[in-house]
Amino acid sequence: MFFVTILVLLAEIMKPAEFSAAVAEVTDLYYQAERYQTDSGFSASGQKFLQAAEKKLQKLSRIDQGKEEQRYIALLLAWNAELLDEPERAALYYENLLLYDEGFRDGYGEYGMFLIRREQKGASEKLWKDYQEKEKKKLLEEGKGRNLLLWEEINEKTKKIS
C-alpha cells in the first residue's frame, strides 16, 4: 500500500512536467512556422508546422488535465486555427471552450475579440449580452485578462455611441 501511494504521488508530480514539455513542443512549432510567415499569411511550409501543432494540441486535449491546462489547450487550438486562417474552426473552439467552461471570464474576452477581428459585430454583441447576464448572476470567475478588458472597453464605447 505504501509503494502504491508513492507511485500515485510521483505520477501526480510528474504530470505538470509532462504538460509543460508538450506545450514547449507546440511552441517550438510556432517558432518554426514564424520563419515562413509572409504579409499574406503562412507559406506551405509554415502551414505544415501549424498543422503539426494542431495535431499535438488535439492529442494533448484528449489527456486528462486540470481545468487551467484544458483552458490553455482550448485557447491554443483556437489561436492556431486563426493562424491557419480557418475562422469557422476557431469559432468552434471558442464556442466549445465557453460551452464546457461557461464560468471562464477571459474566454468571453478572447472570443469577443476574435469576433471583432472577423468583423462579426452582431455575434459579438450577442456574446456581450450573454457575458453581462452571467456577470450579473455572478457565474463568472474573478480576474480579467487583457483581451477581456479591451473587449469590455469596445462594448462600453459602442453603448455610449448608440
The major β-sheet equals: 2 strands, antiparallel
Note the beta-strand portion: under 5%
How helical, in percent, are the residues?
over 70%
Number of strands: 2
Q: What is the 3D shape?
A: globular
Q: Catalogue the unreliable spans.
A: none
SSE-based structural type:
mainly alpha
The radius of gyration computed from the alpha-carbon positions, rounded to a whole number of angstroms, is: 19 Å
Order of helices and strands: HEEHHHHHH
What is the count of DSSP helices, taking H or I runs of 4+ residues?
7
Could you report the average pLDDT, rounded to the nearest whole number? 88
Largest sheet strand order: 1-2
Description:
The protein is mainly alpha-helical and 162 residues long. Helix content is 78%, strand content 2%. The chain has 7 helices and 2 strands. It has a two-stranded antiparallel ribbon. Strand 1 (37-38) and strand 2 (41-42) form a beta hairpin. Helix 1 packs antiparallel against helix 2, helix 5 packs antiparallel against helix 6 (121-136) and helix 5 (105-117) crosses helix 7. The mean pLDDT is 88.
